[in-house]
Amino acid sequence: MKVGVVGLGLIGGSMAKAVKKKTEHEVIGWDASETIRYSALLMEAVHGFMEDGNPKDCDIVLLGLYPQLTVDYIKEHAKDFKKGAIIVDCAGVKRMVCEQVQAVAEENGFNFVGAHPMAGVERSGFTYSTAEMFEGKTLIVTPYKGTDLGMMNALSMFFKKLGFAKLKVTSTEEHDQMIAYTSQLAHVVSSAYVKGVLSHNFKDFSGGSFQDMTRVARLNENMWTELFLANGDNLADEVDGLIARMQMYSKAIRAKDAEGLRQLLKEGREKCIEIDEIKDFD
After folding, report:
1. Cα radius of gyration rounded to whole Å, the chain
2. Prediction pTM value
3. Helix locations, the chain, DSSP H
4. What is the Cα–Cα distance from 6 to 129, expressed in whole angstroms?
5. What is the pLDDT of residues 240-277, one digit of tens each?
6. CB of 2 within 8 A of CB of 49?
7. Longest dimension (CA), the chain
8. Residues 6+ apart with CB under 8 A from 145
């Protein structure tokens, strides 16, 4: 089987390396950057490259592009995809991508499945991609209603070969709502937190909490701006909710309300224990 990977950044590069290392499939890649293409070839992440990014003859095409570039690429190459081919995007938001390409896929005879690997590191780019990126991780998939179950089963087997331990099937709406809370909000908080006036003096004053809180502030601002705005309704709600909860702590502290503060902290501890129990059960 011929697998195409378009966009050889952190996720796309890791997909290419994982497919090449862990499966028998032929991997052909593409990236707009000639430097990245050269690096991918030198590191033997791919067997070769698409001609000008054309996905013809690929049985599966994995898209590691920003959301709007994903939509643009699919529309531009709609007639180039092999009939019956499976196109999987790995963008961090699903509504804006999936809603725009469903009709395109149906009209041109290829299959489209939205996906989002729950994997990554705080640094971006092909340099940090690895074949082991997806070991033990979850892949969220948002197939359209009526998607062929046999195809989804085959796709599941394919991704498990890359190291994924679980495929979580959900709707585009639930995906974007949950990702606003579990991922995007954390990046907003980290970015805001690291801007504190005392941040440069953290050395010798942190046992690790500061590094934990600021780790994901080392983000790609171009990609995350697009992701945040594409999911702006959900993310703004989460930011506003966090601010409201933080204000409760601030008021209790300023009022020297020991009982009120103790209750807030107790509620947080109990919620954390609930989450840990869910994680342990999983």
Report:
1. 21
2. 0.92
3. 10-22, 34-42, 67-76, 95-108, 149-161, 172-179, 185-193, 209-214, 221-230, 232-254, 258-281
4. 14
5. 999 999 999 999 999 999 999 999 999 999 999 998 87
6. no
7. 68
8. none
What is the C-alpha to C-alpha distance for residues 50 and 8, in angstroms, rounded to an integer?
12
Query: CA distances (Å), 254 to each of 159, 260, 261, in order?
Result: 52, 11, 10
Query: What is 31-91 written as a DSSP string?
Result: -S-HHHHHHHHHTT--SEE-STT--TT-SEEEE-S-HHHHHHHHHHTTTTSPTT-EEEE--
Give the β-pairing of 86-89 and 111-117.
parallel
- Alpha-carbon torsion, ordered 241, 244, 248, 254, to 10 deg: 140
- Which residues 6+ apart lie within 8 Å of 54 measured at CB? 77, 80
Kind of pairing, strands 111-117 and 138-142?
Answer: antiparallel
Q: Tell me, what amino acid is at 84?
A: G
Distance CA 27, CA 29 (A): 6
* 234/243 Cα distance (integer angstroms): 15
Each residue's pLDDT tens digit, 187-236: 999 999 999 999 988 888 888 899 999 999 999 999 999 999 999 999 99
